[in-house]
Amino acid sequence: MINYDLKKIRAIIFDVDGVLSAETIPLHLSGEPMRTVNIKDGYAIQLAVKQGLRIVILTGGTTQSVQIRYERLGVTDIFMGCSVKIKVYNDFLAKYDLKDEDILYMGDDIPDYEVMSRCGCPCCPADACPDIKSISKYISDHRGGYGCARDVIEQVLRAQGKWLDSAVAFGW
Fold it and tell me: Annotated binding residue at 108?
């Protein structure tokens, strides 16, 4: 269980590579990375959006398929090509009048470190690097790309009384 008052969470920010997709990525003949996705993560993301939780994608990647995937799940805050994530994080907080304690961030590697050091509830997948694990309030039992997003979203929605609380939960 996440050791944080999850009722405070107003937004969950996810890195992509190593969190929403597995850390090993096949390459297309064109050189384009072909990321994996987890169906249960997808279900949880679209449900969280429908339940009013702001879901955010914050990635250094620029693959259009990532944009399309998360737009189709209802995510509107998708930040691609972020070489320094803390700058985008600060702009995001200001745009929605949020505070660090309102944010759960799930990352797995050094580019996530600055944001995870600031946000209220830093979390990571089971296979995150040691530096990220050392600053996380919660380390999921699931590896990146294998249900770690579902894990944290479900905990937040349950804590907020929004998991299986209405007909919204029973469809896509």
Answer: yes
Identify the helix (H) or strand (E) that includes residue 54: strand 54-58
Residues 159 and 121: their CA atoms lie apart, in Å, by: 14
**Would you state the pLDDT for residue 33?**
78
Q: Is 41 annotated as a binding residue?
A: no
Answer left, alpha or beta for residue 52, where phi above 0 means left and psi between -120 and 50 means alpha: left
Residue reference for tokens 């993301």? 45
Q: Determine phi and psi for 3, rounding to 5 degrees.
A: -90, 75
Question: What is the DSSP secondary-structure string of 13-41?
Answer: EE-TBTTTB-SS--B-TTS-B-----HHH
* String of DSSP letters for 86-117: HHHHHHHHHHHT--GGGEEEE--SGGGHHHHH
Ordered mean pLDDT values, 10 residues apiece, the chain (172 residues): 97 97 83 86 97 97 93 98 96 98 98 98 98 98 98 98 89 74
